[in-house]
Amino acid sequence: MAAERGARRLLGTSSFWLYCLLLLARRAPGAAAARSGSPPQSPGASVRTFTPFYFLVEPVDTLSVRGSSVILNCSAYSEPSPKIEWKKDGTFLNLVSDDRRQLLPDGSLFISNVVHSKHNKPDEGYYQCVATVESLGTIVSRTAKLTVAGLPRFTSQPEPSSVYAGNSAILNCEVNADLVPFVRWEQNRQPLLLDNRVIKLASGTLVISNVTEGDGGLYRCIVESGGPPKYSDEAELKVLSDPEVTSNLVFLKQPSSLVKVIGQSAVLPCVASGLPTPTIRWMKNEEALDTESSERLVLLAGGSLEISDVTEDDAGTYFCIADNGNETIDTQAELTIQAQPEFRKQPTNIYAHESMDIIFECEVTGKPTPTVKWVKNGDMVIPSDYFKIVKEHNLQVLGLVKSDEGFYQCIAENDVGNAQAGAQLIILEHAPATTGPLPSAPRDVVASLVSTRFIKLTWRTPASDPHGDNLTYSVFYTKEGTARERVENTSRPGEMQVTIQNLMPATVYIFKVMAQNKHGSGESSAPLRVETQPEVQLPGPAPNIRAYATSPTSITVTWETPLSGNGEIQNYKLYYMEKGTDKEQDVDVSSHSYTINGLKKYTDYSFRVVAYNKHGPGVSTQDVAVRTLSDVPSAAPQNLSLEVRNSKSIMIHWQPPPPATQNGQITGYKIRYRKASRKSDVTEILVTGTQLSQLIEGLDRGTEYNFRVAALTINGTGPATDWLSAETFESDLDETRVPEVPSSLHVRPLVTSIVVSWTPPENQNIVVRGYAIGYGIGSPHAQTIKVDYKQRYYTIENLDPSSHYVITLKAFNNVGEGIPLYESAVTRPHTVPDPTPMMPPVGVQASILSHDTIRITWADNSLPKHQKITDSRYYTVRWKTNIPANTKYKNANATTLSYLVTGLKPNTLYEFSVMVTKGRRSSTWSMTAHGTTFELVPTSPPKDVTVVSKEGKPRTIIVNWQPPSEANGKITGYIIYYSTDVNAEIHDWVIEPVVGNRLTHQIQELTLDTPYYFKIQARNSKGMGPMSEAVQFRTPKASGSAGKGSRLPDLGSDYKPPMSGSNSPHGSPTSPLDSNMLLVIIVSVGVITIVVVVIIAVFCTRRTTSHQKKKRAACKSVNGSHKYKGNSKDVKPPDLWIHHERLELKPIDKSPDPNPVMTDTPIPRNSQDITPVDNSMDSNIHQRRNSYRGHESEDSMSTLAGRRGMRPKMMMPFDSQPPQPVISAHPIHSLDNTHHHFHSSSLASPARSHLYHPGSPWPVGTSMSLSDRANSTESVRNTPSTDTMPASSSQTCCTDHQDPEGATSSSYLASSQEEDSGQSLPTAHVRPSHPLKSFAVPAVPPPGPPTYDPALPSTPLLSQQALNHHIHSVKTASIGTLGRSRPPMPVVVPSAPEVQETTRMLEDSESSYEPDELTKEMAHLEGLMKDLNAITTA
Fold it and tell me: Which are the contacts of 1418, defined by CB distance < 8 A and separation ≥ 6?
């Protein structure tokens, strides 16, 4: 029944949570919407599926001519077939009454006889295909542009020209771009065939390269665009013969900036003319283009460059360079690449419910960046409070209503084209509620917090479900005056508050709250009307902001008062920032204009204005950009150099001024030169802004000239360079051959450099432009340096010390390099003084983090006070342990002032030291720091386990062992497991605990001639280690039997107790009784009766008269904690019933261990070691069961033959807390006496911290379910109960008790006894070691089932329930056997005491015995037991 109820409860709980998850998944905003292909399966609701609806063909841009016919293709797919319509420029076309336009069966639009004139262009425009399915919705296609070629008009016509044979010719014929495809050329009124030599450019211009005499004639171009052809003027091309004289190099056609779309072809025209005939080469971004091997780059006739199938990588600046050997000219053009919009992420179909929020995602790319608009069922979506564009392109729909259903399309558009992608939205009906009660409306819905943009709602549970732990809630809200409702769900079941975000200020909202359970949604609460707070009134943006440059360093900004000032404007703040930087500056302004001075010349700046009122800053204006005016350059050109060409000319080279100093567009350069001897006679030359060199000719021979260059802008001339001198040659030197060898070469080696000096060649008639110095280790070709022809020495730097270098020197001119002159040198050795050692780190500390990790920290006095490392120093940490002594150091490097050392051994002392290294300098090792790692559970079992028999005691064995090799801490004890079945579960093995670091232990009372298996487990303060391998030992056979009248020294497990109707603790049945055995039983009963009477009489006569003495003895009894030697899983009640009220034995553990954790038998030390108990009616015998294995209950009996059922299954709790003191014996008083409560509570360690909850009778620390505890017979512990004691007797031991915990228990128990007088507390147990040594005491069978009062307090010890009926009271004593084992003698009790006798015993419970008196009584009792054993063995 318990298992069935538990399963039902688990099933009900699981079903509820599953429902909650489904409800959240269905109702959650945004994320709850089901994506394409995964409709929510609501039971009882018909789920619609997404319908395929898309375009098979969409219209494309088309070029047509007047009078022709055009087809714009369009086809859409859907079931059923869609209705196709067309829009032109956003307006639907009426194709029914249109004679020229008609709809083809597939949906395409056919336009016949295109009309186009100067003032009437009805067919040209943007067309869009619209497909509609009545039951689904509408989708629109991309927009296609229909262009009609205009009337032919020539912007330029061919002109008469002449060209030398072999050169190129250009004949212009430029028309509108849409007419270029209709242009053709005629030569002498005959069609001109185009080929590789004769091409037509994109503008219509004709290019003829490598002109021959046959190319001469009359040329004209014709435009045929549907109407009558239009002819240009005729122009004659004359071909001249080669005059064999040079002519200047000029461009006939230069490239212009071009914009192309990815995939198109681009043609950059470049045609040059001159004699000799020039050659054309191309460069892109200063890199030469290889037009011969490339498949996409083709050099057309005349030198034009064609790039096919362009990509984004083709964008850049292209240079056309024409060279004919005499001179070189170049021009450039920019190629820009654009890309049509493409979808990276398309919208997906969505399922949703009403009031939900959804997001359609759309991600597009393109160049220029596309703009995105959304269309729903063919109509533009206008952003509003409920339709929002989020994350640039995504569409968010808030508070869905049924009318939102349909098809949504994302349309991306840029200058190149447009594209569309769509998705379908289906609004689902909510699933009908299942059979069952629905919750009523939530109560007391209030707005606990109202702000400008959010409202927090709270409420109480519905009246139908006052607990409400399993309810979820949905808050529906809408703006007053609108029908669109939104929903917000609680995050977890039972939560009764929610915060509504993103509201509008000063706006009224209506709220309703609805609860849901597993059956569905309940009633809605009454509408709650709440108005958000008004927002602080801030100024709006200042209108009409303008900025204009007033000088090269100043800009004036003006603006007007904001339209929505929301009060008096106090001032304005003007923000400005230089373009390309991220540092924004600001200035406070009180008027409507301001002039900013001190700006950079010819530099772009951005400006914005923010108005301030008493509430603070308002809305910023948009940025406006303006550039300061240009000015004359503020710096001279760079890198001016002179090259003497001959006796009459000097070439001058330079570079533009730095960009920041140009202060405008460089329009040219001004070159000034003069003779050094006549400084007043200055000649001036102007060159264009793109020219960076100039040849100065007509100079005098052997004359020194000074040169300087200045840059120009439209504002004037900037500063000039310093004068630079050069001297023309005395005569025109020979430059038809290379220079001769230099006359001398000298080297002077240093440590890392070599100084080279030389003299020029002896033959001064050959031009020397400069000298080339080559050097390298072993070879002079590793490095080459060129210097001016005037230079006579040079220092080679950055060489290696002590290295052999080979050096060459060659003179060169424009023809080439001359003969080299060789020399070698060895650099000097590098002598470095020994670096001074650094200071060692200080303050080394070792912080232990775990069993294998220690953090080392230190300080470095060579660092600044803030200890910030800014150089390349590093630290070396070393560590070792002294066990074993020869352990080597381990090292690690660190760049910070700490290091985490891992991989250490547990419970091991380590020493650490640190040193610092910086470059070649190192410190000595720091002072050592020590640290011992934390302990860890043993990771290896005890070693060398041996088992031997004790001499003279065959039933006693001695187990010896050695500590584990990896103890990982101080060993605090061992546990010996033994069993006769090596394959038994470990919880069925018998446990023998060993305290401290002892390495031997005796085990007594074993069965003779029986194989045993032993395992040992070590423990330390961290827990238990692994078990050793099982060791087998067989006990010896019996050596003989006891003589008559003597006490049996040892009884085997095969001995059958002579008692009918009783089972041994092992469960083996007894043999039938003969007449002798019957006599033994009768005598035994009589002896036991006499013993009981004598004990009661002694108790009464020896009663202590001192009341304080009774209190002290009683308090000692109840405050002691007990360690149980052992008890079986099914042990009969103890055979020795002693009614001593003050029985007490002092702890006798003499272990020298300062922190003893356990003796021979462990004590439960936390709540998980003890299982609460209940009464069981399965047997008339009151049974006791203890489990030392946490919450686990066992129903299997131990298979150990000799000691089966005699020892408990135990889980030994170990922690770092000190153990409770050991009490080897304690009295058990009447079951309602407060001593029981004190005794139970005293076993609880303070570390347990059990909390008592009035609603739960079990300790917080337990994990068993209530049904398991109440019904499981595996955890039942039963003891006899008795009637309630008088109230006065329940206060005996409490008045002088000083223990705070005990005091708490006392006060609580005193009050709880009034509610339930049937409480029973557990008793201690005596471990029987032989079947004859324990007899069951029959109990009065209970008349009815036990009752359970949930108000009973739980104790850390085994909780027990009382019976409703009166049961004879019996008392037990626990006898501990520390160090030795003395089993109690068997006593036969024929019947339980009468109720009257029990009452008298309870009244005499104030009696107390001292330990010496108890010892005498026990000795007397032992003699009686010996006599009884002698009788039974006869």
Answer: none
